[in-house]
Amino acid sequence: MGSLAVTMKGQVTLRRDLLQHLGIKSGERIEFEKMPDGELRLRAARPAGAIEDFFHVLDGKLKMEKPLSIEEMNSIIASGWSGELSGK
Prior knowledge:
The protein is α+β, with helices and mostly antiparallel strands and 88 residues long. Helix content is 32%, strand content 11%. The protein contains three helices and two strands; from the N terminus they run H-E-E-H-H. It has helices at 16-22, 51-58, 70-82; strands spanning 30-34, 40-44. The chain has a two-stranded antiparallel sheet with strand order 1-2. A hairpin with a 5-residue loop joins strand 1 and strand 2. The protein is elongated.
């Protein structure tokens, strides 16, 4: 288990290896959850899409940069079913 120093302002800087482990890039956000006994649970904040966004792709109101392949669609579907996209 590693440790991090807290600044006088109460800030903590996460090391690059920890950010990489979380899958966080510069400018992205981290979600936290308060746990019992003074623990925090951290995870990458992932924006959730809405089904309406998908419908707008179908009706032409929203343009995609490039169409998704069948493999990419299957990967997205599998991630949703496994709970990976919902942050669970």
